[in-house]
Amino acid sequence: MEQYEEVLDRVLSILVEGNLSKNQQAPVTEIAKTIPVGISNRHAHLSRADIDSLFGKGYELTKLKDLSQPGQYACKECVTICGPKGVLEKIRVLGPARPVSQIEILQGDTFKLGIKGELRLSGDLNGTSGATMIGPKGSVQLTQGVIVAQRHIHMLPEEAKHFGVVDGEQVSIEFDGPRGGVLNNVIIRATANSGLECHIDTEEANALGVTSSTRIDILK
Amino acid sequence: MEQYEEVLDRVLSILVEGNLSKNQQAPVTEIAKTIPVGISNRHAHLSRADIDSLFGKGYELTKLKDLSQPGQYACKECVTICGPKGVLEKIRVLGPARPVSQIEILQGDTFKLGIKGELRLSGDLNGTSGATMIGPKGSVQLTQGVIVAQRHIHMLPEEAKHFGVVDGEQVSIEFDGPRGGVLNNVIIRATANSGLECHIDTEEANALGVTSSTRIDILK
């Protein structure tokens, strides 16, 4: 029954798309269902031990600004990431420290570094590529931890209920505009202490003409 | 009637998508309808006068390899592109010379250069940003000519007929895979002396998980 409703939803959205201009599209649904978009550039989450190695024993990261996810922040500190073929400089460190270091890069960076970029959700690091991180006080050779982030939507469990989705579900999201389109396989991450935001990276944002003021619809 | 068939096609493709695995998807339709994808990185087309200014009077570009569009080729030569905020080095020159110089960059490059990136088809340069080009023998200040290429599909008029599209029409194209999705507003360029190929840029390719072996379907 649920599948039938999904198909019906998609058929209806196509019919609406075919008969109405962008500006005429069901405004009520749009207000009820749009989600802000956060555009992620390359960044690194560091473990306490790796902060010690890169910036000095006991070094404390300096908060630059809070991010949309509660407790997460961008730091003043940057690191250099090295692969067998090239280097990425000025990679922003995000805080606070995590149990394990994780570097999130763009698909385009994988060619520059000369490493494979596994498409993964944050924290799912088994079997991913490694790289060398360089800081002002030393370097760390990661055996794994480099990922290309899989697009996802953070929300509270009650927001998931409102949107009719569940944690771990894959949905599609739609963008208007001259570079408009649909991105599939966007993972719902419905957890307590989340800020409602869809996370895509800069290549995805540029390809779809997305800016920081863009809001998206979930297409189930 | 044609519209009805289009809707039916899309409904059918959704039903097929929902019930069959990727490998089982209607092979006959796929063979008949898929189009190879060419991924464009940043590049420059130069006028004869600008080749003279950048590389020396009467300089002839050196062909490196032929491109998919008949008569077009990548050259050994590169130029540097400068904007008010930054520089792009090693921008590949494509030959042969054109009546007017045109620089095609990525949306992400526009932030680096500090210029506006108008989304345009090749040749549609009125009102676009300028930039300074630097070569081994001199520089040229373009007052306009910098674009972000609008995605498009080159084909012969008879191929357009086969695909049921016309020159100038905007279509959507679909990609499978973990970063799959749909890109809208892809312009059909149906002209004599064309090679069948869908042109997207590296940001679009990376966002959708596209490689040089990817083939796409037209969704009308």
From TrEMBL, chains A, B:
- Could you tell me the keywords of this UniProt record? Acyltransferase, Metal-binding, Transferase, Zinc
Q: In which pathway does it act?
A: Polyol metabolism; 1,2-propanediol degradation
- Any keyword Zinc? yes
Establish whether keyword Zinc is in the entry. yes
Which cofactors, if any, are listed as required? Zn(2+)
Q: Which InterPro entries match?
A: PTAC
What is the uppermost EC class here? transferase
Per its record, the protein catalyses: propanoyl-CoA + phosphate = propanoyl phosphate + CoA
EC number(s) in its UniProt entry? 2.3.1.222
Which family does the entry's similarity section mention? Belongs to the PduL family.
Entry function: Involved in 1,2-propanediol (1,2-PD) degradation by catalyzing the conversion of propanoyl-CoA to propanoyl-phosphate.
What name appears for this protein in its UniProt entry? Answer: Phosphate propanoyltransferase
Q: What is the originating organism of this protein?
A: Candidatus Vagococcus giribetii
